[in-house]
TrEMBL record:
GO terms for molecular function: helicase activity. CDD domains: HNHc. Gene3D superfamilies: 1.10.30.50, P-loop containing nucleotide triphosphate hydrolases. It comes from Roseomonas nitratireducens. Keywords: ATP-binding, Helicase, Hydrolase, Nucleotide-binding. SMART domains: DEXDc. It holds the Pfam family ResIII. It comes from the Bacteria. Residues 67-254 form the Helicase ATP-binding domain. This is DEAD/DEAH box helicase family protein. InterPro entries: Helicase/UvrB_N, Helicase_ATP-bd, Helicase_Restrict-Modif_Enz, HNH, HNH_nuc, P-loop_NTPase. The keyword Nucleotide-binding applies.
Length: 596
């Protein structure tokens, strides 16, 4: 019982009230403080054996009022469409497809404020994303917590927060609480990065079961598609023959967000060169990015050769990776000449590769870098990187990079053999967010990719989108340029004051016209599709000892020569047999510092 003995449903003074189970004992409710409430006699009798309170949701924090300040134009179009869907008989799901940086998190929070909901539960696929939800929610007065069941004291009574943000992995441990919550209140479930919640996956089934009584579901994703055959929960599909295409109920594309000046224009650049593989029998095979798609080559199928070239350069050759990293470091140095604390993102394929390149960045190249390869460390790592401007790089892996959203990132380098469009869009999205106080045209970013035809095709689409969708990059001089500038000023002037992600408009920059022309020229220049030649590198197959390959599959030329010299003393097979353990130890010593 509370100290002031007030009814938690109606608020009346009730010294002779009743201690009641929020979720009735007859329906399986536990006799715990978390399931207890103090009700006056009339409210308790009115409630009976039903779950919940005498007056719905009175012990939930009242929703803050939102007057629309800071709301973006597209969010103003989305909200009425969403609210109309919530009123459709029998409908319980809505899908929002919105690009990184467009404001989809705020849009989902505004949907909770505007709708007939008592609470909000946000589901995310990763731990690192929860921090951005709690901070964005605080901007609009919403209190989200990451611990289920916790309460605070407001006006003398126990109150719950406005909602919770949970990872998919947490669902089984709090399933009973979620089920009770949804039966007590009208709950809006927001599924973030919804492409992870697909039919047939364990966490999708667990979420459906635990939140079966939720009032409504809002699914949100910047890349509303998958590369397998699974259908994404909440997404409507239209069949075209044997192919099914998912269609969000509301879509805000990266191109439209660019047009609004809310994200950075990103230029894709390409890295080339060659890698020659020297086999154990002395034969050599060269894979050169200058060969394009290998349509003129004979031998192994074209796609297999392209895959091998990408694998050897980005995963097997330390020398090639170091050369690519030097190019990216040089680009970041050029960006930082304007005095801003710009940073870079290195995306690796494996943890061991990330660890090796992090050592090379910090040791050989003298670049302060943060190693971020564990999803559980993402939230704290990003906060540290944002606070410490001395850190220049985040070294990550593919599965972690999706959760990395740092406004000061302006260079990204992909050293993986991944060519999936969804992954490329996610990495590009890491560069999209704007740093407040800096005009968007001063925040153009560079994404380095290998000169693989599949990556070039993606980059060409991306570059052309930037060129043609952003009004201030319109071609022409004189009147054409003046009209482009007028459109830009109109777009900037239309942005409401108080936007949580607002930034200084580039139209205030007296040097903007020349800068715009330089950016436009760079995007139009076909020479940009010719890769930067990093050099010609060789990989030697590592000699096998006792029938086993020691360490990595390949070594550099220097390592190979050193290894051969060390092993020359064991040319006599009888000596080699008796010294196999020593050989093994010597090879392992040489393998130290070699990336897998």
């Amino acid at each position: 019982m509370l100290a002031d003995a007030r009814c938690e449903a109606c608020g009346a003074h009730a010294p002779d009230g009743h201690a009641d189970h929020v979720h009735p004992h007859a329906l399986g409710g536990l006799t715990t403080m978390g399931n207890a409430q103090w009700l006056c006699a009339s409210c308790n009798l009115a409630k009976g054996a039903r779950p919940g309170l005498g007056a719905r949701g009175r012990h939930v924090l009242p929703k803050p009022a939102h007057n629309g300040v800071g709301r973006r134009r597209w969010q103003g179009e989305f909200l009425p469409a969403f609210l109309a869907a919530t009123r459709e008989p029998g409908r319980r799901r809505y899908f929002l497809g919105a690009a990184v940086g467009s404001g989809k998190t705020i849009a989902a929070l505004l949907a909770y404020l505007a709708g007939d909901f008592d609470m909000i539960v946000v589901l995310t696929p990763k731990t690192g994303i929860r921090g951005s939800w709690t901070s964005d929610a605080a901007k609009v007065g919403i209190r989200l917590q990451t611990v289920m069941g916790s309460m605070s004291i407001e006006d003398g009574r126990r109150v719950m927060p406005h909602g919770y943000v949970l990872t998919a992995q947490m669902i089984p441990s709090v399933a009973a609480y979620l089920d009770r919550l949804c039966q007590m209140h009208r709950v809006l479930v927001v599924v973030d990065e919804a492409h992870h919640f697909a039919a047939g996956l364990a966490w999708s089934a667990q979420a459906d079961a635990a939140l079966a009584h939720a009032a409504f579901w809002l699914h949100v994703s910047g890349t509303p598609y998958r590369h397998d055959d699974r259908e994404i929960a909440g997404l409507r599909y239209v069949r075209h023959g044997n192919r099914a295409e998912g269609t969000p109920d509301f879509r805000r594309s990266y191109a439209e967000t660019l047009r609004d000046g809310l994200v950075a224009p990103i230029i894709c650049r390409f890295l080339g060169g060659s890698v020659t593989r020297v086999n154990l029998n002395g034969t050599r095979e060269t894979y050169d990015y200058a060969d394009g798609d290998y349509t003129a080559r004979t031998g192994r199928p074209q796609r297999q050769r392209m895959a091998e070239r990408l694998r050897l350069s980005t995963l097997a050759s330390d020398d090639y990776q170091h050369a690519a990293l030097r190019e990216a470091v040089g680009e970041l140095d050029r960006y930082r000449q304007d005095g801003q604390p710009w940073g870079g993102l290195l995306v690796c394929a494996t943890i061991r590769q990330a660890q090796a390149l992090h050592r090379h960045l910090t040791g050989t190249l003298g670049q302060p870098a943060l190693l971020l390869v564990d999803e559980a460390d993402t939230e704290d790592g990003v906060a540290r990187f944002e606070a410490d401007h001395g850190l220049r790089w985040i070294v990550s892996i593919t599965k972690v990079s999706e959760g990395v959203s740092v406004p000061r990132l302006r260079v990204a380098l992909m050293l993986t053999n991944v060519t999936a469009t969804q992954t490329l869009e996610q990495v590009r999205g890491r560069l999209a967010r704007l740093l407040n106080g800096v005009g968007s045209l001063r925040q153009e970013a560079t994404l380095f990719l290998m000169a693989d035809p599949r990556l070039i095709a993606f980059a060409r689409r991306s570059n052309e989108m930037v060129l043609h969708e952003v009004p201030w990059l319109a071609p022409g001089d004189g009147d054409d340029h003046a009209r482009a500038m007028a459109r830009l000023r109109a777009a900037m002037a239309d942005r409401p004051e108080g936007d949580a992600e607002a930034h200084v408009g580039p139209h205030d920059d007296p040097d903007m016209p020349a800068h715009i022309r330089r950016l436009g020229d760079a995007l139009r220049d076909e020479a940009q599709y010719r890769p930067i030649h990093l050099g010609d590198f060789r990989l030697y197959a590592r000699p096998a000892l006792d029938g086993a390959v020691i360490g990595s599959e390949f070594v550099s030329e220097d390592e190979f020569l050193a290894l051969r010299e060390r092993l020359a003393q064991f040319a006599d097979p009888f000596v080699a047999m008796s010294a196999s353990r020593e050989l093994l130890e010597a090879a392992l010593d040489l393998a130290e510092g070699v990336a897998p």
